[in-house]
Amino acid sequence: MQIPKVTLNNGVEMPILGYGVFQIPPEQTEECVYEAIKVGYRLIDTAAAYMNEEAVGRAIKRAIEEGITTREELFITTKLWIQDAGFESAKRAFEKSLKRLQLEYIDLYLIHQPFGDVHCAWRAMEELYRDGLVKAIGVSNFYPDRLMDLMVHHEIVPMVNQIEIHPFYQRQDEIEFMRNYNIQPEAWGPFAEGRNNIFGNEVLKSIAEKYSKTVAQVILRWQIQRGIVTIPKTVRKERMIENISVFDFELTQEDMEKISSLDTGKSLFVSHRDPQFVKWICELKLPE
Predict the structure, then answer these.
(1) CATH number assigned to the domain comprising residue 151
(2) Who is most buried in 13, 48, 96, 226, counting CB within 10 A?
(3) Residues with active-site annotation
(4) Could you report the per-residue pLDDT of 25-40, keeping only the tens digit for each?
């Protein structure tokens, strides 16, 4: 199956649907990523903070060696953690990620959180990008004001901003802001981790029934039709297949408007402007 792609502001193509490995234990990650690649996923999203880059790397190596895919077909994302947000420290952290993943380059490298010395980190990432070690650079969890601060002070505009987006937190104004600067929005937590009984939501269920699809498939289709790259996570092969089977139907404008009505305008997880959360996450140190 060929997953459609979006074109980033530097001309690099990125699959609009991928496979995320947040909170998948390292001992499960290799098999999960290997199965995801076999099913047809080519975008794999990990991070230094997920502590499973090595397992992702083993799965990639295995899939390539078995002829399931090629390195050129894959689009691998990883992320820089807060404690390494500095010029030299970001470059060192990148090298460690590259080694753990057993790769010669990364397709997309993101600043994971808008905290720490993000400006020096971004300068390091610009250098890695110019050196060809990474094909695209971006950020994660950045509000528009933080994006603007970064853009004003640096040459390269982020190619991607990965943020929480789901039917209960749609962030349309922020997405429009990103579009104005050719920054590709990418959704983490597309199913809101099942919160607010999202899979039992009557609006989503009625739309799903109309197309003989699942609520999860409707949510992914809604994200895709908004032009948002999405990275659902699952450890079950049947769910991997279900999540990728969203290119054989299309939601109507009426369907899209019904889903729009579900927006609460609030995160179901955390606020990156909450001082207590910021303190907690900035003190979260990864083992060396």
Answers:
(1) 3.20.20.100
(2) 48
(3) 50
(4) 999 999 999 999 999 9
